[in-house]
Amino acid sequence: MAKEHKNLITGLDIGTAKVMAVTCEVQPDGQLRLVGLGTAASKGIKRGVVVDIEATVGSIDQAIKEAEQTAGCNISRVHTGLTGSHIRSLNTSGMVMVKGKEVTVQDVARAVDSAKTVNTAADQRLLLVEPQEFIIDGNLVREPVGMSGKRLQTRAHIVTGAQSAAENVLKCVRRCGLEVDQIMLNPLASGLAVLTDDERELGAVCVDIGAGTTDVSIFFGGAIRHTAVIPIAGELMTSDIAIGLHTTMENAEHTKVEHGVAKQMLAPREVDVDVSGMGEQDLRQISKQALAGVIEPRVVEIFSLVQQVIHESGLEEQMQSAGIVLTGGSASMPGMVDLGEDIFLKPVRVAVPRRAQEMSDMLAHPRVATVMGLLEEARLARMRGFKAAEAGGIKLMFSRIRDFFIGNL
């Protein structure tokens, strides 16, 4: 018999290595209570993009059914994410004249409309419009509604992506009998999950190193300023191990997870690791330091590409305070922080989702950052509710702008 739950939300992370579905109940005080969790090996996804619809549908269905069994209820709606190297971002601005004596919600909507007028390639579409700040008659403001002024300007973060990539994600989810409440960008979701308010304000780079992609989001002044997706991540570390040690991908992944160290100098030379060979070959032994010697060059490459993204964003100076925040499944490998600080010359920390620990130890891991970010956005939207809509709350309007472009493909 199905359990009685109210205000349920479900985050669905369709990753390259795993599909994870997490169902929570939004409590009256706004806290989340875990009620269902399901995971499945991901099949049909390559570097964050659907390459086999049938296989992807099977993985999603398996994760959803497991979440339904643990929750004791049916799941019909989900919040899911989108990533891939097709993602592009830019910052734009728009300006309108205020129609009355005070700035209204309608004025803000017109200003954001003017900011989102950008030229995109034929195969790209607008995925996200995120207002960053507003300027009234030359003065920077955070909340413009109700303020007096004649000219309203806005600065906004615009993200575009491949039309086909977004449509294929929606198609896979809907083939499982699910409705999509929102498609959110994975880099934004990860940043929402792990960064503190101070980090977003002072300037921080969230680097989510998954299996197929490394998602980068740069925050400053309380808003997102740059988004990028690098198609190199943990899966290529595994491939390097498989090739270098002449073993299978499955054995290489196990060896990486259990014994991997990102910085060779930190790995003990005297400790050996058993590695299975191909087929029926006997076990071989390799020192942990030699294994780290295979892993480190790939991590250096990933960090160097992240550094290039930061440089191209023009935000290097703003990153001095909070530095680099690593998350994602590959971020938990020993040595990542030390190697990161060597390359970035800035503070580096590994982060778990901020709300995860109070919900369940199972969610207190960097690998669940994306799905927890999806849930956090869903929670915020749920808490804003109809009262905020009736009051014309500007924060709710921002959410609606985002939903319109990436939730209704």
Automatic annotation (TrEMBL):
SUPFAM superfamilies: Actin-like ATPase domain (SSF53067). It comes from the Bacteria. InterPro entries: ATPase_NBD (IPR043129), Cell_div_FtsA (IPR020823), FtsA/MreB (IPR050696), SHS2_FtsA (IPR003494). Residues 9-194 form the SHS2 domain. Keywords: Cell cycle, Cell division, Cell membrane, Membrane. It is a peripheral membrane protein. Self-interacts. Interacts with FtsZ. Cell division protein that is involved in the assembly of the Z ring. May serve as a membrane anchor for the Z ring. This is Cell division protein FtsA. The lineage of its organism: Bacteria, Pseudomonadati, Pseudomonadota, Betaproteobacteria, Burkholderiales.
